[in-house]
Amino acid sequence: MGTSKAQRLAQVLRDGGVNVSFEQSAIADAARGSALRTMATELVLNALDDVEARRDTQLLWPSVLVDGGINAVGAAVRVHRLDRPRWACMRCGFKQAASSAIAVQSAATGLSEATLAADHGRGLTDGDIAAARPELRPWLKEQQQLGRTVCATIAEAQARRVGMNLAAGFRPSAPFVAAMSATLVMTEALKSLYFKQAQTTQHFQLESMFIGPKSGAALRTSVDTRCECSVYRSQIEKVAADRGKLAQSAR
Ligand SMILES: [Zn+2]
């Protein structure tokens, strides 16, 4: 629509009377940037599609972090709170992928890692196909003739792997499932902020929107004592306490 998603969402919130700025970058870069470093980050709401990005947001060590997502099962929410030291954080809860996203995409499409590291929005070139794994070149040629971009080729290859065909109507995301995940995120965020003593769920997985909460499961992942959240616990708590004092003095 000619505007970045970050910019557009910021404008929607501003129209609602909230003072909002926006950053358009990878989480790790934003966290190192001056805008975020000057903030006393108390609350983080994640709506991400990548494990590494989720792990990176944890390094802001907010008092409350609520992470929403959709997965092969349905909609899910995970919470990390500094006042619940036995709960896994996003770093010990989401394990690092054994192989990079590019390696997984290369295995599925046959495209070289150099092609996959470049702009995914462009169409496939003859050079991309020549550099690809030989057994997948005929299939890639077909994708090129269909006018598919690198991004669309990856989606098609991943859909083929799970026995689905995009042309037959498969769509990778159902908006109402994502909306349910957002609802779970806001529910847990409000509980963590305003009803701190109420029973809270660390990880809730909902399977069917049609059956409702009965198809859900409350899960618990214990902290990994080798994780930064455990090893640097006292420093993290000190930073959070200083943040609290800063907020008090600003009032
Ligand atoms: Zn951890």
Write the layout of secondary structure elements.
Layout (H helix, E strand, L loop, with lengths): L4 H11 L11 H6 L1 H4 L5 E5 L3 H8 L5 E7 L4 E7 L8 H4 L7 H9 L3 H5 L8 H5 L6 H9 L4 H12 L13 H20 L8 E4 L9 E4 L8 H4 L1 H18 L1
Parallel strand pairs: 1-2
Antiparallel strand pairs: 2-3, 3-4, 4-5
Bound molecules: zinc ion.
Q: Kindly, what is the distance between the CA atoms of the first and last residues, rounded to a whole number of angstroms? A: 40 Å
Percent of residues in beta strands?
5-15%
Q: Classify the fold: give the CATH topology of the largest domain.
A: Rossmann fold
Which ligands occur here?
Answer: zinc ion
Q: Your description of this structure?
A:
This protein has 251 residues and is α+β, with helices and mostly antiparallel strands. The chain has helices at 5-15, 27-32, 34-37, 51-58, 90-93, 101-109, 113-117, 126-130, 137-145, 150-161, 175-194, 228-231, 233-250, and strands spanning 43-47, 64-70, 75-81, 203-206, 216-219. It is built from 13 helices and 5 strands. The chain has a 5-stranded mixed beta sheet with strand order 1-2-3-4-5, with helices on both faces. The structure holds zinc ion. Zinc ion binds at residues 88-89, 91-92, 223-224, 227, 229.
